[in-house]
Design a protein that fits this description.
heterodimer; A: alpha/beta; Rossmann fold; Alpha-Beta Plaits; 6-stranded mixed sheet; 4-stranded antiparallel sheet; 35% helix; 28% strand; globular; B: mainly alpha
């Protein structure tokens, strides 16, 4: 079983990544102590997969520092063997069946759980003798989840793990992730666009925006970090005051604004008085609003076409 | 070694693909060679008359049968297994080392099976009908060491060539793969030109080596392809 050392974790300092003239990450800095479930969130092309690839040494950073348990992971076998990162578009050898892939996993992961693997294979009804190139999108996701959870790697990266999975399979994934995490505490870094659905899993969220970490906080704080106010434009603007508007939509005289900040008692009073609708933004709405804000204010907008 | 062994296991995950199919290809080549000899024998009887049987010593089947498949094995191994190895926490150098050991194993199997077939061929007086499949000029005319070395080294070259071009394709795309192929061709032609330019001394030394000369050349090319695949692999990304 993997044990959690408080001194362990991932340290990122000024991590940058460029593809030619296109700079995706402009200086990512964050400390991620081990033994938590992190949600890595942000709009398409903001660099979530790129960041995970850099941490795992699947691609090379342009600048900055990455340390895992105090060591640079680049071509560092002792560090990398604790990592599992099955990409969302993971390529397998076309001639391998699921049985072939499962057979080699214990060689890579000393804590590999055959029991977990078999349970998930049965639950997802994965065909053991089907070649990897024949797997459907959902089956590929189910396989990635199976490999990731059964690996029991100290640092497990899940990149959009449930593309193509139906609601039942996603629920199964959430249950299995929590079961594994409770029984064998370790670090999960989860990137997803189904944010509200996965929010219950996350302990800490990192929201990437414009190539940097825009928000790094615990999930409850993130949920309280913005609110949505709707109503007639003058009253809405009056309630918002000088607070930052992340996103705004208008339909005739009615405005809906997502605002960064906490709802105060004064806000509630004003909303009641002026017949405004006032509610906390969901985490998904918060992340979406940050993305929209970035698109409408970001001078680097053309850089958004890289995953 | 543990890190490398993991990648040997990855290479060998589908044993039938990397070990058995090359053997089946050799067996198929053998069957075709015997069938052709049998067809030749239809008008004049079997076993073939010695002068006709000697004519089948020019059979090039052994060296033309497996290369195509082994190039694809090498390309698949470096191209597709690479992303798997990295996903499962391997370093690039351990992946390359483990896969290279796998290539050596495949090459040894091809060499040993060829040797076994040569032995059977001689034992059965060329499959009872005077058919030559492994006791052929290109494998040393029944020389066991040259048969083994030729087939093993040729296999190694094909695997590493596939690995090299597979890695270049993955890392840099089709254009650079073409550039690399042209560069590899230029290297071969340049080496030949160098030999010719240095005249009779070099050529006579090479000539004295007999069949060991092409084996040496293929070994050098395999080493070049292996080195190239290592260098490109160190910079490859998923």
């Amino acid at each position: 079983m993997t044990t959690i050392d408080p001194e362990r974790g991932i340290h990122l300092c000024g991590v940058t990544k460029s593809f030619g003239d296109n700079t995706v990450l402009r200086g990512v800095t964050a400390d991620l102590p081990a033994g938590r479930i992190y949600g890595l969130l942000g709009a398409n092309g903001v660099g979530k997969t790129t960041l995970m690839s850099l941490i795992c040494g699947h691609s090379f950073r342009s600048g900055g520092t990455i340390l895992i348990d105090g060591q640079d992971p680049t071509e560092n076998a002792a560090v990398l063997e604790n990592l599992c990162f099955v990409h969302e578009d993971q390529r397998y050898n076309d001639n391998f069946t699921i049985a072939h892939i499962l057979a080699i996993m214990p060689a890579f992961y000393p804590h590999w759980s055959e029991q977990t693997a078999q349970r998930l294979i049965r639950a997802f009804r994965l065909p053991m003798k089907t070649k990897s190139k024949k797997l459907s999108r959902g089956q590929r996701s189910a396989l990635a989840i199976t490999l990731s959870l059964a690996s029991r790697a100290a640092y497990t990266f899940l990149d959009e793990p449930y593309l193509g999975l139906d609601a039942t399979s996603r629920t199964l994934f959430y249950e299995e992730l929590l079961r594994e995490y409770a029984a064998h505490p370790r670090t999960f870094i989860l990137s997803t666009h189904l944010i509200d659905e996965a929010a219950e899993l996350m302990e800490v969220v990192l929201i990437l925006d414009d190539g940097v970490v825009a928000v790094h906080t615990d999930v409850d704080e993130a949920r309280r970090s913005s609110f949505i106010v709707r109503g007639r434009a003058p009253e809405v603007r009056s309630l918002i005051g000088d607070r930052e508007v992340l996103a705004e939509r208008s339909m005739g005289a009615v405005v809906s604004a997502t605002v960064r900040g906490h709802v105060t008692d004064d806000d509630r009073y004003a909303a009641h008085r002026d017949h405004l609708s006032l509610e906390d933004a969901s985490l998904q709405e918060y992340v979406a609003a940050i993305g929209i804000h970035s698109l409408t204010h970001d001078s680097h907008a053309p850089a958004k076409d890289v995953a | 070694m543990t890190y490398t062994k993991r990648n040997v296991r990855l290479y060998l995950a589908n044993r039938s693909f990397v070990l058995l199919i090359p053997v089946f290809i050799l067996a198929l080549m053998l069957l075709i060679s015997i069938a052709i000899a049998a067809i030749i024998g239809i008008p004049q009887g079997l076993p073939l008359r010695p002068e006709i049987s000697d004519g089948t010593r020019g059979n090039m089947g052994p060296i033309f049968s497996v290369p195509g498949f082994l190039v694809s094995v090498g390309a698949f191994a470096m191209n597709r297994n690479f992303s798997m190895a990295l996903a499962f926490g391997s370093t690039r150098r351990h992946f390359w080392a483990g896969t290279s050991i796998g290539f050596v194993l495949t090459s040894l199997v091809v060499g040993l099976v060829s040797l076994l077939c040569l032995w059977l061929e001689l034992l059965t007086n060329h499959w009872f009908i005077g058919a030559h499949a492994f006791d052929v000029y290109v494998l040393g005319d029944g020389n066991a060491a040259q048969t083994f070395a030729t087939m093993a080294v040729l296999s190694l070259l094909c695997l590493f060539l596939g690995a090299f071009f597979g890695t270049v394709f993955r890392a840099f795309g089709g254009t650079w793969t073409t550039v690399a192929a042209l560069a590899f061709g230029a290297l071969i032609l340049g080496s030949v030109a160098l030999g010719v330019a240095h005249g009779s001394t070099v050529l006579s030394w090479f000539a004295s080596m007999g069949l060991w000369l092409p084996i040496l050349v293929v070994t050098v090319l395999a080493a070049v392809a292996a080195s190239g695949s290592y260098v490109v692999n160190r910079f490859a990304t998923v």
